UniProtKB/TrEMBL annotation:
This is Peptide methionine sulfoxide reductase A5. Belongs to the MsrA Met sulfoxide reductase family. Keywords: Oxidoreductase, Signal. One of its GO terms (cellular component) is cytoplasm. Its EC number is 1.8.4.11. GO terms for molecular function: peptide-methionine (S)-S-oxide reductase activity. Catalyzes the reduction of methionine sulfoxide (MetSO) to methionine in proteins. Plays a protective role against oxidative stress by restoring activity to proteins that have been inactivated by methionine oxidation. MSRA family specifically reduces the MetSO S-enantiomer. It catalyses: [thioredoxin]-disulfide + L-methionine + H2O = L-methionine (S)-S-oxide + [thioredoxin]-dithiol; L-methionyl-[protein] + [thioredoxin]-disulfide + H2O = L-methionyl-(S)-S-oxide-[protein] + [thioredoxin]-dithiol. The keyword Ribosomal protein does not apply. It comes from Eleusine coracana subsp. coracana. GO terms for biological process: cellular response to oxidative stress.
Length: 246
């Protein structure tokens, strides 16, 4: 079989320039991680939400400007070290790390509310069960107040059914197994290849991967979907040279 590595390396370089470059992410350094801009003089902030299947939840937040990285896991329950097949009383969650100077917690709450049906009583659509319940995990009184305020607003839109969303302080967040991270992106091997088939830990840390995960699920804004598609088409059309025989 021909080695795709030359083509992959060339494609990665171009994709990083075209897609990540436009969003301010840095080129991969010696370590190879494609990371976003970390706030100077301040740590990134973290928000955790449960809103149904975490495959989709992760994609719902991945394309927002100011989001540095996303990952999925389990929280809200009492069982230690939950696993996908045995998560007991935990809920499937997304952890969003973001630059608070670029995006406010309130904007994350807006995305939370519009990305699922908080009136769905025991899950989300076909995903039925306690693990798909709706939760805002808060850290401190400001977040708790904002969460309660937006929940009341959501409830006021229609009083004929109840908003089921729980608001609770974040306890332990247990990261999910690697195969659940960037799940939507992993369904598109071509996109993974364009990124240079990054190892799992770099995929989790990568701002570009978070964005492409959202793109793969078609959850970026329409104009962004279009822009990314045309950049990818451009790269694909160039037909990078592949060594076939030697
Ligand atoms: C909660 O907020 C404090 C500061 O407001 C921060 O230092 C801490 O890391 C936060 N915890 C989590 C889990 O995000």
């Amino acid at each position: 079989m021909a080695s795709p590595s030359a083509a992959t390396v060339a494609a990665v370089t171009v994709l990083v320039f075209l897609v990540a470059g436009a969003s301010g992410a840095r080129l991969p350094g010696r370590g190879g991680a494609v990371r976003g801009p970390l706030p100077r003089g301040g740590a990134p902030a973290t928000a955790v939400f449960a809103l149904g299947s975490f495959w989709r939840s992760e994609a719902a937040f991945g394309c927002l400007p100011g989001v540095i990285r996303t990952s999925v896991g389990y929280a809200g329950g009492s069982k230690a070290n939950p696993e996908y097949r045995n998560l007991a009383d935990h809920a499937e969650c997304v952890k969003v790390e973001y630059d608070p100077r670029l995006i406010h917690y309130k904007q994350l709450l807006e995305v939370f509310w519009k990305s699922h049906d908080p009136r769905d009583v025991f899950g989300q659509g076909p995903d039925v069960g306690n693990q798909y319940r709706s939760i805002i995990f808060t850290n401190g009184t400001i977040e708790a107040r904002l969460a309660a305020l937006t929940k009341e607003k959501e409830q006021a839109k229609d009083r004929s059914s109840v908003i089921t969303t729980q608001i609770q302080p974040l306890g332990v967040f247990y990261p999910a197994e690697p195969e659940h991270q960037k799940f939507e992106l992993k369904r598109k091997p071509f996109l993974l290849q364009l990124m240079g088939n990054l190892p799992e830990e770099e995929l989790i840390a990568s701002t570009l991967a978070a964005k492409l995960n959202a793109y793969a699920a078609e959850l970026c804004p329409a104009n962004t979907q279009k822009r990314i598609s045309s950049k990818i088409d451009e790269i694909a059309k160039k037909g990078w040279p592949i060594l076939r025989e030697i």
